[in-house]
Specification:
Layout (H helix, E strand, L loop, with lengths): L7 E7 L6 E7 L5 E7 L8 H12 L2 E7 L3 H4 L2 H4 L2 H15 L10 E6 L1 H11 L5 E7 L8 H6 L4 E6 L3 H11 L6 E6 L11 H16 L2 H4 L1
Parallel strand pairs: 3-4, 3-5, 5-6, 6-7, 7-8
Antiparallel strand pairs: 1-2, 2-4
Helix pairs in contact: 1-8, 4-5
Length: about 220
């Protein structure tokens, strides 16, 4: 497997039809895998929460690609943020692009989805031919993937939700009931939707890193 000789961080532009997707690719010196971050609104690569989780993953030897699945103009339209097929299409295109790059083509891949990006991550993982090894959702809307797609997800899936994010927690419980893959719904005590309470984002990052560290390496998956 080709690996960078030293940590790498660079902005990438991924062609997706007429609208290129931008992202921040970061690889530790000897990555054990790579996680694509799917955010349904705002900028993933400028999100303090996503960047914090990515740094924790880097410390565990896991690379990251923080994707902006929508352009700034598209993000102004509330309906586009909930266009799950569009988000899924762009996430799958970014996944295929990674498979053609020398530094990433051999790396095991995972998805980290937030908000509606979690639904896109699960729909992309459920697509035929996708070799995604693990999915983590942070305060996401996995229910928007739909029961049929959820039932087709084959990789281990972790749903992280704050205990005080009651509506989203119930939606995650409903989504979990449709999953047939190894999965866990983890409730973070005292956390609201954005995990702004002291220690809650750290708990999310730690659990996500544990999940990817367990399921990304091929030997562990086997």
């Amino acid at each position: 497997m080709a690996s960078p000789l030293k940590p790498l961080e660079q902005l990438v532009r991924i062609p997706v039809g007429q609208t290129p997707v931008e992202g921040l690719l970061a690889l530790p010196a000897a990555p054990i895998g790579l996680v694509l971050f799917a955010h349904g609104s705002g900028s993933s690569r400028h999100s303090p929460r996503n960047n914090y989780v990515a740094r924790v993953l880097h410390a565990r030897g896991v690379g990251s690609l923080l994707l902006d699945l929508l352009t700034p103009e598209e993000d102004q339209d509330y309906r586009t943020r909930f266009d799950i097929p569009l988000l899924t299409q762009r996430l799958r295109a970014a996944t295929r692009w990674l498979g053609r790059q020398p530094l990433t083509q051999s790396l095991p891949l995972g998805y980290f989805g937030a908000s509606t990006g979690a639904a896109a991550a699960l729909m992309a993982a459920a697509a035929p031919g996708q070799a995604i090894r693990a999915v983590v959702s942070r305060g996401g809307r996995p229910d928007l993937a739909g029961p049929e797609a959820l039932a087709r997800v084959g990789c281990p899936t972790l749903l992280l939700v704050g205990s005080r994010d009651e509506e989203v927690l119930e939606l995650n419980r409903q989504a979990a009931a449709h999953l047939r893959c190894p999965h866990r719904l983890s409730v973070v005590p005292g956390a609201t939707h954005l995990f702004e309470e002291p220690g809650t984002l750290e708990a999310v990052a730690r659990q996500a890193a544990d999940w990817f560290e367990q399921y990304l390496p091929p030997a562990a998956a086997a």
